[in-house]
Amino acid sequence: MKQPAHFALHPFGQIPTYEEGDLALFESGAIVLHIAENHAGLLPDDPNARARAITWMFAALNTVEPPIFDHDLARIFERDEPWYEQRLRFLKDSIGKRLGALSDRLGEAEWLDGLFSAGDLLMVSVLLRSKGSGMLEDYPNLAAYVARGEARPGYKRAFEAQLAVFTAASTI
What are phi and psi of 21, to 5 degrees? Predict the structure, then answer.
């Protein structure tokens, strides 16, 4: 990821990147939006439903993911800091507020806004970051939502493809 060829695709030297012909994109949201706009089934045809699906994409990446990501980083890099426990409590509280609101909004529905959309794709991906942390245990409807997302054939194909890339890279 820190080679010049990758920096040409992603100026911050991170993942993901996406290439399609002469188009190169970076940032998960931009990639998913591009794919959703060009493949049926990820964005509704109705303009209002489409706008709501895009809103859920932004909510996943800008509201729900940041405290979950910060929690992961704190557990790895800040464990020995004197303020670690206080920071972890703050992050868990922040995550709990977001998960509580998301759980209330989802209720017993299968997906966030009717049919599965790109908003669900990103939200499930973000919530998967907390899988195994115990954070979803207080929200059984969110745990079931994540399980439904993981069970989708497209998710399974994408996961297998991503795993193949990481496996190949680890043998280099």
Answer: 65, -125
Each residue's pLDDT tens digit, 95-151: 999 999 999 999 999 999 999 999 999 999 999 998 878 899 999 999 999 999 999
CA distance 156 to 55: 25
Tell me the C-alpha distance between 90 and 96, whole Å: 10
> What is the C-alpha separation between 148 and 151, in angstroms, rounded?
5
Q: Where are the alpha helices (DSSP H) in 28-152?
A: 28-38, 47-59, 65-77, 84-106, 118-128, 140-151
Residue where the block lists tokens 């794919």:
35
pTM: 0.91
Chain Cα centroid distance, residue 61: 6
Q: What is the CA radius of gyration of the chain?
A: 17
